[in-house]
């Protein structure tokens, strides 16, 4: 019996616990938000979007969830995820790629997409930016808006670049 209890306790400590939200900004219902487009979009330039968040403790990021919608006319509704540092209230430099070629073609309209993260450490009180960028020149994806400006969303209309400007809406996402 003692062996059984010891084995059960060992299994309990080996199995990872469920992810805890570090930050969440999901609202009820999707609202058209920031457009992530490749260079073949109507504007003819690649556009990326970013949203700021600040963890209240030290964490190891395990996944990211975003509410997005793929354009029905899009030849390629895929996007890439990155974690960026903060640079004076705008995205600074890349701290790592979270996912590449995330496909939203199967979404009927807007829906939540979850992408597992590599082991990226987050420090308490440090502002970070979740960046959604076009996967290729034909990308067309909309990141659902939360409707207010806290936390801020930024837009880069010359991706990959550093021409970030803050938007007056927030994007729907969760960091676990």
Question: What distinguishing features does this structure have?
Answer:
single chain; 176 residues; mainly beta; Jelly Rolls; six-stranded antiparallel β-sheet; 1 helix; 12 strands; 7% helix; globular; disordered N terminus
Structural description of this entry:
There is one protein chain. The protein has 176 residues and is mostly beta strands. It has one domain (19-175): Jelly Rolls, CATH 2.60.120. Helices cover 7% and strands 46% of the residues. The protein has one helix at residues 2-14, and strands at 23-24, 34-37, 48-53, 59-70, 78-86, 91-103, 110-122, 128-134, 140-143, 153-156, 164-167, 173-175. The strands form 2 sheets. Strands 1, 2, 4, 7, 9 and 12 form a 6-stranded antiparallel beta sheet that branches. Strands 6-5-8-3-10-11 form a 6-stranded antiparallel beta sheet, with no helix packed on it. The radius of gyration is 18 Å and the shape is globular. The termini are far apart. Residues 1-18 have low confidence and may be disordered.
Main beta sheet, described?
6 strands, antiparallel
Number of strands: 12
Name the shape in a single word. Answer: globular
Secondary-structure element order, as H and E?
Answer: HEEEEEEEEEEEE
Distance between the termini: 37 Å
Q: Per CATH, what is the topology?
A: Jelly Rolls
Tell me the strand percentage band. over 45%
């Amino acid at each position: 019996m003692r062996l059984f209890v010891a084995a059960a306790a060992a299994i309990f400590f080996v199995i990872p616990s469920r992810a805890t939200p570090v930050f969440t900004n999901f609202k009820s219902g999707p609202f058209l938000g920031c457009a992530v487009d490749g260079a073949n979009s109507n504007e003819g330039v690649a556009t990326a979007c970013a949203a700021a968040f600040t963890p209240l403790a030290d964490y190891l990021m395990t996944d990211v969830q975003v509410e997005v919608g793929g354009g029905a006319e899009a030849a390629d509704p895929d996007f890439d995820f990155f974690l960026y540092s903060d640079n004076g209230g705008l995205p600074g430099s890349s701290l790592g790629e979270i996912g590449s070629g995330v496909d939203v073609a199967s979404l009927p309209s807007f829906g939540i997409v979850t992408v597992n993260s590599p082991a990226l450490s987050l420090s308490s009180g440090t502002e970070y930016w979740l960046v959604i960028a076009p996967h290729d020149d034909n990308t067309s994806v909309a990141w659902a808006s939360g409707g207010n400006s806290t936390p801020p969303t930024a837009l880069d209309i010359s991706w990959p670049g550093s021409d970030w400007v803050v938007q007056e809406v927030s994007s729907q996402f969760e960091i676990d």
